[in-house]
Amino acid sequence: MKQYVGRAFTHRLFWPVAMLVALLAINVIAVPGFLVITVNAQGHLFGSVIDIVRNGAPTLIIAVGMTLVIATRGIDLSVGSVCAIAGAVACSIILGSPNPDDPVVVGIAVLAAIGLSLLMGLWNGFLVAVLGIQPIIATLILMTAGRGIAMLITEGNILTVESAPFKFLGSGFLLGIPVATIIGAVIITVAALLTRRTALGLLIESVGINPEASRQAGVRARGLLFTVYAFCAVLAAIAGLILTSNQTAADANNTGLFIELDAILAVVLGGTSLNGGRYSLAGTLVGALVIQTLVTTVYTVGIPPIATMVFKAAVVTAVCLLQSETTTAAFARWRRRSVARKPVTEAVVSQ
Amino acid sequence: MSAALAPASAFTRARHKVVDVFTSPKSGPVLVTAVLFVLIFLAGSLRYRGFFSGQVLLNLLIDNSYLIVLAIGMSFVILTGGIDLSVGAVVALSTIIAARLLQAGWNPVAVIAVILVATSTLGLLVGLMIHIFKVQPFIATLAAMFLARGLCYIIAKESISIDHPFFVAMANLRIPLGFGLSVSPSVVVALVALAIGAWVLQYTRFGRTTYAIGGGEQSGMLMGLPTSRTKVLVYVISGFCSGLAGVLYAFYTLSGYALTAVGTELDAIAAVVIGGTLLSGGYGFVVGSALGVLVLGLIQTIITFEGTLSSWWTKIFIGALLLVFIILQKVLTSRRT
What we know:
The complex is a heterodimer. By secondary structure, chain A is mainly α. Chain A contains 17 helices and 6 strands. Chain A has one domain: ABC transporter involved in vitamin B12 uptake, BtuC (Orthogonal Bundle). By secondary structure, chain B is mainly alpha-helical. At the A-B interface, α7, α13, α15 and α16 of A face α6, α12 and α14 of B.
């Protein structure tokens, strides 16, 4: 039993999960009915927890793509701009059609947005894999120019869209569950199955550890880099569509603003190192939930909105410090010492 | 045989020397930036009337003095292979502290001192977090960015205007240079900071250790260089520079506002990269970063002169320009090997 407790303590996800539980506990103390999920008149699930998994979906979706990019020792700063471009493209197509409520039109708009973002992702992949530019700068280019491109598409206006099928993406329900949540769940499951049930994840990690060595070992590093950046951009577009649909408007300046930071934060809180070579999608899920719960906690506990950022900084710092190498090593030393104090035979057995 | 080849080889040698200087990973990118700056300026002069004047150049300095100071601090951090995402938020925090304390009737010198101490302390905390807890710079400075922005909101949500005579004087004062040209006091501050930054990097042990960390931290440590201390100190410098830039920004805008300078960290990083500093650390000059700021400023000026271009073209141009510079650097440095 003690062994299990010890193992749980040193598990990579211990601190992020502990933080999530602590945040939920704070909420339950502040609002006793926080965890209650009810079914409302339309048969939709309803409650604070549902809000968390629905509003957290865009961040989670992007964080999944970001996890794979970071696993290759890269980073993608352009996801926020890709969100804005996807929203702008979809909204301008829907607005341009005579019949915005036609599901076919919305389908074409969504596909066009995803197709364009695929090109953006390939562009990022080209800069990183072929030209060998550092990922942070390579994607900074699209991050800066992308907002400009989005404004070019919307011509500097905020495009408001009245389209029932499009609205369904962001605020609809399917079998009582929010559509955004379902999309998020499907994406993380598919990504986990694709990379962990095949060798893909291993290959991605090997590129992150040493691209040159993995290339010489027969891994197609270049193709993999193209794939992860394209995948990340497509996921960013999906998240952008959900965000735009939720706001029923495409805002080139503000859609997905700072979402790259939240996504990177979710990945890092989940224990994936920015140095690449190792990743955990489960960790990313926990990280994204922590971030969204954090936002909800601010409202439920009644922390004044002006202190939100400080609160966020405190939580991020706490998790980072707790799961840092130094702290882990200190804990390990402390545990070894407590083991050493026991009789020798028992210590050997317990090891 | 050698006599026959002598004149040719002298010429070849000279040519090789020029090629060497331009393709060296150290000075090449800076020179390319300088040449491109001149070319863009000449292109602007040919295209627009009134562009080719000393005051247009000096206005670049006046409008971007705070960004030059930011880029200096950012250069130190990037030279060690780190990054500082908090600078924009710290600029906003500085302006708001200035506005608030002046409103409360503080002496402006004391206000500036408080700002510089506060931002340096924030830098110190970030540095310690990175060094002791091995938190990645990207994340540690991101947390600092959230903290600084959050503190802005706590101090004041609304924009506060600054009407203290000293700040107003600093905003309006123009130091004449003759020929009808003039600069603001902020330009002088920025240029002095630039000179100090360049001197520290080139001629002090601290500067050399900064380059050594970027080149290879392990090797630097094994050589007995004080890498830990230096690594923490570069973040203190960046914090100090952000505070100073915030003061200059307060002179420039005469207000303190929580939402000001959003995304400035990216401008600073872009300027440093355009100025030829490698993001992986080890190569680069602060003078290059200042040139990078001027190139960004020049693009803005051209877009203003063009008049009909919408603001979003600025972003697309800056993105395209970043791309051109990075590819140029890549091509130039790869020819070497």
